[in-house]
Specification:
By secondary structure, this protein is of the alpha/beta class. It has 3 domains: about 130 residues, NAD(P)-binding Rossmann-like Domain (Rossmann fold), CATH 3.40.50; about 180 residues, NAD(P)-binding Rossmann-like Domain (Rossmann fold, 3-Layer(aba) Sandwich), CATH 3.40.50.720; about 70 residues, Alpha-Beta Plaits, CATH 3.30.70. It contains 13 helices and 16 strands. It has a 7-stranded parallel β-sheet with strand order 8-7-6-9-10-11-12, with helices on both faces. Helix 4 links the parallel strand 4 and strand 5. It is elongated and about 85 Å long.
Length: about 400
């Protein structure tokens, strides 16, 4: 790999929120020595001050990247969200600022799936209430309403990476697996597809939710849906906190309809470990409440560190944007004996024609050209002769609707 136009020792990387050491190791292995790590999140003002000379920012879920932060951080090139989601980033502002945003949507899949299976076993054996009783000196040695999971029907709502992994583990333990997804998905193993969510609720003993955060999934399990549960069923939610109406869930549990629930995500969650956690489900029998730890294993965090840092490094050194949530996706080959220019612009008609005209007027031969667009911006990558790159860059910066242009190498 040719040296980038930015000397690696001068590219500042800031990693917040106790990101796994694997990320720093990956940057250092690639030759980036200016890597600063902070354990906590920063508020808006602190972030603006910290980002003045930073090119690459790594965050988890607590740091909020607002339009104001992005506008004040002129040197920022990319943001890595070392977690599943990107809700903490103003993606529209990131896009219009030419800042690419990556995340790690699949690196904690196994960790979440294992917790779902563990929670299923704990609930169906009534472990939460037996554990609480034992701590209070009570000896609830009884088999009433305690079952094996073998032979039970598990319903998975959302058959994506996590849902399908749950499916595989569940089947290995003898569960009969059914699933429902709004998109057509091929089953793994002997899993059975269901024609509707209502059909799944009707036939299954345990329901586990693995849906994304969209306007359609807000209160997906509201009072009306929860009222359709039959006596003795269990509900597990390790997807998004706003998917389940917790007051309606509490009512069903108190009436003895639902036999138990495991909830790992909540509509409102404490911002720091010291803040008080409040939920209507507290102190209910056979309810497992965990503090959003589905993906909180050392293995998952290590893999997330590797995944996101490798995407950031590839963007720095190659210009590739596969997995970006803000810039159009391009997978780019390495072309030897050229200089590569990146051009990000507002997606309006005529920009590519203007780029090509300027290059043609300079009589520069384009050795490779790549283009991808989304609704907001276009991303053009040009491979040109090494003797012509500076001249080409100066002209490309004059192109109408340019957001950012730079020589990559």
């Amino acid at each position: 790999m040719d040296i980038t136009s930015f000397p690696k020792e001068k590219i500042k990387v800031l990693l917040l929120e106790n990101i796994s050491p694997s990320a720093k190791l990956e940057f250092e292995k690639a030759g980036y020595s200016e890597v600063e790590i902070l354990k906590g999140a920063l508020n808006e003002d602190e972030l603006i001050e910290a980002l003045q000379d930073v090119r690459i920012l790594g965050i988890r879920s607590k740091t909020q990247i607002t339009e104001r932060v992005l506008k004040a951080s002129e040197k920022l090139m990319a943001i890595g969200c070392f977690c599943i989601g990107t809700n903490q980033v103003d993606l529209e502002s990131a896009t219009s600022s030419g800042v690419t945003v990556f995340n790690a949507p699949f690196s904690n899949t196994r960790s979440v799936a294992e917790l779902v299976i563990a929670s299923t076993i704990m609930l169906i054996r009534r472990i939460p209430e037996k554990n609480a009783a034992a701590h209070q000196g009570l000896w609830l040695k009884e088999s009433d309403h305690c079952h094996e999971i073998r032979g039970k029907k598990l319903g998975i709502i959302g058959y994506g990476h996590i849902g399908s992994q749950v499916s595989v583990l569940a089947e290995a333990l003898g569960l009969e697996v059914y699933y429902y997804d709004i998109e057509s998905k091929l089953p793994l193993g002997n899993a059975n597809t269901s024609e509707s969510m209502e059909n799944l609720i009707e036939k299954c003993d345990i329901l586990t939710l693995h849906v994304p955060s969209t306007p359609e999934t807000v209160n997906l399990f509201n009072k009306e849906v929860i009222s359709k549960f039959r006596k003795g069923q269990y509900l597990i939610n390790m997807s998004r906190g706003n998917v389940v109406d917790l007051d309606a869930l509490k009512e069903s549990l108190e009436k003895g309809i639902l036999a138990g629930a495991a909830i790992d995500v909540f509509p409102v969650e404490p911002k720091t470990a010291g803040d008080k956690f409040v939920s209507p489900l507290q102190n209910l029998a056979n309810v497992l409440l965990t503090p959003h730890i589905g993906g909180s294993t050392e293995e998952a965090q290590w893999n997330i560190g590797l995944d996101v840092s490798s995407k950031l490094i590839k963007y720095l050194e190659n210009g590739s944007t596969i997995g970006s949530h803000s810039l159009p996706e391009l997978s780019l080959p390495k072309v030897d004996n050229t200089h590569r220019i990146l051009h990000i612009h507002h997606n309006v008609p005529g920009v590519l024609s203007e780029i090509n005209k300027k290059i043609s007027d300079l009589e520069i031969n384009i050795l490779g050209q790549y283009l991808s667009t989304n609704k907001q911006v276009g991303y053009v990558v040009l491979d040109v002769s090494k003797t012509s790159s500076k001249e080409a860059l100066e002209e490309l910066r004059l192109v109408s609707n340019t957001i950012n242009a730079r020589i990559l190498y």
